[in-house]
Arad-like aldolase/epimerase
Amino acid sequence: MVNLTATLGALISANHILHYHSVLDAMGHVSVRNPLNNGTYFLALQMGPAVVSGRQDIGEYLVESSEPVNGTVGGYAERYIHGEILKRYPDVNAVVHSHAEDVLPYTVVGGLGLEPVYHMAGFLGPQTPTFDIAATPPYQDPLTPQDMLISTPLLGALLASALGTNASRPTSPQHRAVLQRGHGFVVVAGGIEEAVDYAYYAASNARVLTTAVLLARAVGGEVRRLSAGEMRGAADMDAWIAFKPWRQWVWEVERSGVYVNELGGG
């Protein structure tokens, strides 16, 4: 039997871990599909990830509309990122939205893709797509606030579509990550542990790639990306080994003295 308390405890830990490692700032968020009802999902209320501590800090929303259920109030305006991705891809059960500064340059510099350069980032694949909200019809409406937020179901659906569709498995996205021009990035996964892993290593790969590009320019060298085969193999490896860093990350935040998780770390 699925333990909902353990799922919510893991969601709280995910918020803490990604804040601890500077992947989430005060505005980032993580969601998980309800394991007892795939028609709803859980997302922290309008608060920084570091201070999420118990069931009272977590809202529940309908996947179909991202409308709150069970008296949820005070939710994120950008919950449509999560709801529309979960609606479009039944195989996705967890979503992370981040504003990590290590990744942001790759959202605004043309011709510089966030390609994987070491094995822990093979899941990124050969070309991480970039979603530019300014190019969408609803954002070009003069009545739409120019705040770059995914604050409507339509904008959420357009962002979700940027992940593409897996040709051999239409219930899954083609990409595990999408960049948002001048905003941040989103990663999707089959579970919380895997989503945290992807978010952490997307930011880590950005740091490594930036250093490699600068070093290559300084010495006249060339940055060597992973081959297509290496990306596939590394992605398969990373998917099944996500439990290993997860255990360490939970251990770190539980002993940091900074965070409170009333439900246990998962």
The radius of gyration is 18 Å.
